[in-house]
Amino acid sequence: MKVLIADDDPVTVKLIAGLLEPWGYEVVIARDGDEALSILQSAESPGIAIVDWTMPGCTGLDVCRRIRATPHDKYIYLIMATGRGEREDILEGLRAGADDYVVKPIFAAELRARLETGKRIVSLQEQLLAALASAEYRASHDVLTGLSNRAPALERLSVELARSGRDGSAISVLMADIDHFKKINDEYGHRTGDVVLRHVANLLRYSVRVYDVIARYGGEEFMIVAPGCKLADATNLGQRICDLVGTSPVRIDGKSIETSISIGVAGVHQCAGVQDSMLIEAADAELYRAKNSGRNRVCARLFEPSGAGPCSGNPAETADGSGPSCAKLQ
Questions:
Q1: Which of 138, 167, 195 is the last residue of a domain?
Q2: Are strands 100-103 and 255-257 parallel, antiparallel or unpaired?
Q3: From residue 311, how far is each of 11, 64, 147, 284 by CA, in Å?
Q4: Is 275 domain-assigned?
Q5: 87 Cβ contact partners less than 8 Å away, ≥ 6 residues apart
Q6: Looking at 35, 160, 220, 317, which residue is catalytic?
Q7: b/e map of 265-285 (b: 16 or more CB within 10 Å)?
Q8: Could you check whether the bond before residue 105 is cis, i.e. omega within 30 degrees of 0?
Q9: Is 220 a catalytic residue?
Q10: Residue 300: beta bridge partners?
Q11: How many distinct structural domains can be found in the chain?
Q12: pLDDT, tens only, 213-243
């Protein structure tokens, strides 16, 4: 763990550094209060700081106050080093934001014990932050596939639809469902089913642009939000995904499992007032049409809601040039 020694006395710095390094600490040195403050406010700030009360520039008290007044992602454990051992002096240091203190001349065993206390506090805070980050990740991602889950994907879709309404850009939604997934689970077991889900998720991740959103929508169903993507391009994307899934069997335990996927696409071009539920329902309807038409195919249509504001878009941009399309992959 990094420890900052902030002191303008080179003898004191040498003494403390000579103690800390054999104890396994990485020492960072500041020669005055301003340098100490700069180091402690940096992204690579040490977790513990031993700060002298009296320094050029900012005093130790100033450093403590300013660190506590500034929000930080991680907690910095501040130990005030002072030749003032009166109770009022110690209380003043603690009120300024110091967590602990050592009185000069420094007694090695006492310093080591106080550093160990600081190390425990910093480690606990790091564990708490890691747990919080893990909880936030689990709240926004599907644990099995690593894809976004439904809620943040819907939030992003709402944002992109609002953008589309303002600047007239296109947006498309693809709803994809693995064909005969229940049969895979029944025949090979749920463990293999999980492998298939992860396999298809990786293929989807490989197929889209970096700013597209892929989510596990539920069960074996996935949603792709493609901002700035016209219906013809989204349909081509769906066809590429179908082709990739159909030609990439899952290999597990010496078995090769053929898979396919059906996809429904709905797109809007320069439309205002479209809600996320409208576009999802339209893509879902195309997905069911793909399923009912024999699976392993893409069905697509341009979504033009009545009363939603001015919309433009040519149905000839769909696959067959005659409006809603449903194309089976060869």
A1: 138
A2: unpaired
A3: 76, 59, 32, 21
A4: yes
A5: none
A6: 220
A7: bbbbbebeebebebbbebbbb
A8: yes
A9: yes
A10: 265, 325
A11: 2
A12: 999 999 999 999 999 999 999 999 999 999 9
